[in-house]
Amino acid sequence: MPPFIYINGYPGVGKLTVAKELKCVSVLLRPSEKRFKSTNTSAPGSESKLLPKAKTFSNHLLIDPAAAVFDRTAEVLTSIATAKSTRDVTWIFTDQQSSSNLGSSSARDYQNAAGVRGSPFISIVLHCELEENLTRATGGDRGKGSNTKLTDLDILRSIREREDIFRFQDEYELELDVTQLTPSEAAAAIRDHVDIKGFKHEFVSHLNRGPSDREVRILCWLVSRPRHHGGVLFLPVGDSTGTIQVVVESSKVPCWFELKILKPESSLMVHGSLAFRHDATFDIVARGVSIISKATGMLHSDIRHAGPSILGSQNTDVLLSHRHLYLRNPLILALNLYRSQCFSAVHEWFKAHQFVEISAPLITPSILYEPSSAIHISNLKTTKPLFLSQCAGFYLEAAAHAHERVYNLGPSFRNESRTNRHLMEYWHIKAELCSGGMNDIMDLVEIFLHDIFKAQAEDALTNHFGGPVWLMHKPRCLEPFPYRVYPDDEELTMTADLISSGGFGEICGVAEKSFTREDIELRLKRKGKAEIRDVYGWVLQSRDFGMVPHTAFGMGFERVLRWFCGVGHVKDMIPFPRIFGRDPTP
Fold first, then answer.
1. How far, in Å, CA of 293 to CA of 269, rounded?
2. Strand partners, 406
3. Per-residue pLDDT tens for 135-159?
4. For 195-206, what is each residue's pLDDT tens digit?
5. Helices 330-352 and 438-453, interaxial angle, to 10°?
6. Which residues form the Aminoacyl-transfer RNA synthetases class-II family profile domain (predicted)?
7. What gap in Å lies between CA 313 and CA 338, rounded to an integer?
8. How many CB atoms are located within 10 Å of the residue 530 CB?
9. So what's the pLDDT on residue 50?
10. What beta strand segments (E) does 120-226 contain?
11. What is the pTM of this model?
12. Helix (H), strand (E) at residue 430
């Protein structure tokens, strides 16, 4: 449902100007624009509506009652809210209401009308510095339109001295200082706020903060079958943040009988008030319930079933075949949320340590491992064999000699065996540095894990046995050709794997990279790749232009998450897993 937007502020701050910009405004701003000089701020051909199907009402009742667009009464607002012809319209009201009893009551009439309509209510408070306010009050075309405008600066000063603008003081209210903003910039800021806040009024997790009797509105899904007792219906509903019970009386909600037979996962918009329960939680006592979409199907395994057993082998097929639905399961939702938070933390860590993110290609002729473990691309018109990337390493080492510290967090693809540690498509944390040796890169990995995963990593990494351990100097025959040979034993390499505790296996590999052409050519020959050395011509050429000793680490993102979450299979740490030997569905 489109929102009600209520713009409040002192006379002359530009409420109506900004409201008009919300209806039809330039997306491209002229660099020379600095102040509220004109409502026509568009470059030629660049106009577009920020809020399509919006209607603007400017009410100046306090200044000139005869000039008001409509009388400010709850009845009139309610009639506007219930008009069927404008159900798809975003209403933008501009007003000046103070924090007095009369002002707050009048402002809440708008909020109540939004409730009647079932729309989100978004309060915007515009303000600017006094001198700028005085300048705007007497500038431009102000006062020349059909509505009377306040242009008396003494009155404006008096209003600002004796009145405070009313604020709803909820978490969805936007206070916007427009002193240095153009109308288009202010409108764009409001549009962004509406996009983020306006179409989902509250989350369930916010509701248990109370207080009792507070008016609330939530978008939610029915999480299990409704229960009823006489003329009272109990709806267990939830969203991404939790669950709550909605109490619906048959005399108050017209669609009561439809709600009674709804299937789980039907979507609803609920409007009501919070009621405190004896167990220190809250119910929503419904004033209105709208059925957005009815669920028509049922799965034999409950989508919202709580507890770790949902990840058991008995549910594997239904969970993978209907992954698009089971993302709603509380445990899977929590794992994906944890993944998202760790994803952000990885990027933040690298940025904080002066690493530059490099976007490496996913289609490549130059694979790190053997072709048998690569996924071939066969339908492209090319003379070279192409593969999905197994590793971004070749591209990162080239970028490292431009930026010195680089990283990539992106997908890699392996045609590997089906185990609880392997995916065909997984996300890979890769980093390369133009400095240091193997001990340095091992230390960096431990710092990285500690910083990202905090207490869990600290407990694990401080235990030498029983915790993760480094397996150093892996055999040359097992490692790819770009890695340096161990000086004390040519059958070994300057590599190490971090083996996790609890049987979760390898989670990270580190290496010193060969940096001379001679070393790379020798390793290619010993790996039996001499005949295809042209595929790696650009890798060899990089060694002709001042390549320096450099180190790298690579880490399977899902493996690390699986280790810390204690989950049995790596497939449960990615939203849509791709597993060897199973058709990708969905």
1. 10
2. 356, 432
3. 988 876 665 555 557 778 889 899 9
4. 655 455 688 988
5. 130
6. 344-575
7. 22
8. 11
9. 61
10. 121-127, 174-177, 215-222
11. 0.69
12. strand 425-433
